[in-house]
Amino acid sequence: MIVVITVVAFILLATLYIGYQSALPKPLPGIPYNAAAVKSLLGDIPDMLAQVSKTGDIVAWLRDQNLKSKSVISQIFIRPMSKPIILVSDYEEARDVMLNRIKDFDRTSLTAEMFSGLLNRQQFTLKTGPEWKFHRRLVQDTMTPAFLSEIAAPGIYNSCLRVVELWQTKEQLAGGRPFSATEDIFHAALDAVLAFSFGPKFPHNATEPQKKNLRGFPASEACLDEHGANRDLAVPFPHAHIDEAIESMLELGDAMEQVKSAPSPRMKWWYVKATPTFKRWTRIKDACIRREIEKAIDARQINRNSSTGQAWERCAVDRIVDREEKHAQKEGRSPDFFSAAVMDEVFGFVVAGHDTMSTTMCWGVKLLADHADAQSRLRRALFEAYSCAVAEKRAPTVEEIMQTSIPLLDATIEEILRCGGTVPIGDREATTDTMLLGHRIPKGTLVFFLHNSHSILSPALEVDESRRSSRVLQAKDRGQMRSWNDEDIHQFDPRRWLVPENKNEEGGCHGSGLVFDPQAGPSIPFGLGIRACFGRKLAYVEIRIMLAMMIWHFELLKCPESMSSYGGCLAVVNKPRDCFARLRKVSL
Ligand code: HEM
């Protein structure tokens, strides 16, 4: 009997031991890692959580891993019993993989899992293939230059006018005190993307209720006290409720917060989706999108029956409906205007367009407030370029903003995108056993390219050149590798994007001596290659209009140190933890 018990206990212990050993993190040979991590089932999780609980900044922790190992490539273990995640902080390799190695690397299944409860069938979460191509074709007409300048830009401009009016009131009421700018910028970006998606007749917007809400706000509550002692205290402006149709879209987007740190995002979504609140917001959001699609179907029908021959599309949904009908005709099937593909692509515009844009603008407000020289130079360039508007003491029109070349405006946009780091990670998954920087990468391994790290925002880490891909080496031989000066790579300086006119003869503003060069140095704000950001052109239109209008109307003054940290918080995008504005009206 004792022998049997001993044997059973031994087998049990051995099984446990083997199970434990096989569950420990398994590093890929030759790629640096944290030695302590491979001795624990939790891998790097305790170390990551310890730092994130202190700084709240997971992106900084990721960046530190390559710095610690002094290597452009390292591996981390933050998903128990899974393959390691590879971190790469090198612009040239990231560029090569994203642009050229589309057969070896694709969008990750982790991204699909993270977004599965929100955008299950949207291009962002699909693997490259026939379904993804179908989605791209469905929305392809929404990013044409004509659509962007004639339809999208005026809607965005109107949203900017509203937030300018809101801030004019807040500037008066605040009397020189700072106030939180995050929500106003989020609302403005949301209104802009709603106008783009649903057109000028969409009945709701998020900024108008905030404007109305300030009517009863007593100036005495906000202004400086007798001795100016409250000069640095943020004014607690009230928040107004927004219509539940748009609130539903915000609330659903916020559900990502609950999922982002879950060990199994799919399981977490299963739970979140079962909650009555989530179900209610989904019902409201779906009903809203359906209504807008129905309006587009009606408008298309009316146009078909009329003989004016004029373009009838007023928004992205109109264009998607039109495209779906054309596809259906070509494929000999009935159109399905309410398919999961259409519904998710429309909602995807709102989610992708609103969070990324507002976060970028928040970084922009902070960076310009902290760099008064760069801000003044930009304002001077705007005044010079829109001299008629100055003479007539009015704001530039949307046409003036869209049609006037201002190299420094382009440069400032690019520098905000570089320094802000709205999307700090480029995700890819190896679709086959392959090599990266001379290391074997098995199929299914996740690779995170750190966009706001070495070679883009801090000096490049040394790399054994013989390990680089042949394409990168050829580019080096041809003198085509890009780099910033190590001395000032970490500084916010839009002028780094300006080059002498004769260096780049195409485009640019002749006569100024300097032109904007989008290839001046490394930066990957929108990703690259076939899976790069679909909304990139829209984003440039929107940032251009928002930035020009903001700098035209307001001086962004420096806020107190306690409100000026550059820590980020990563959910769908990397938002600044603090974004405050202290405004002074610009007089023309
Ligand atoms: C400043 C604003 C924006 C930034 C920084 C940004 C950044 C990005 C990045 C980094 C990616 C991943 C690219 C890659 O993996 O190579 C992406 C994908 C995407 N973005 Fe944006 N984005 C912005 C605005 C927008 C807007 C306004 C829209 C649409 C309304 C949009 C729609 C998308 C879509 C649909 C994808 C997925 C593309 C695919 O996987 O095929 N984005 N974006």
TrEMBL record:
The keyword Metal-binding applies. Pfam families: p450. One of its GO terms (biological process) is mycotoxin biosynthetic process. InterPro entries: Cyt_P450, Cyt_P450_CS, Cyt_P450_E_grp-IV, Cyt_P450_sf, Cytochrome_P450_monoxygenase. Heme binds at residue 533. This is Cytochrome P450. It comes from Penicillium atrosanguineum. Its cofactor is heme. Gene3D superfamilies: Cytochrome P450. The keyword Nucleotide-binding does not apply. Transmembrane segments: none annotated. One of its GO terms (molecular function) is heme binding. Belongs to the cytochrome P450 family. Keywords: Heme, Iron, Metal-binding, Monooxygenase, Oxidoreductase.
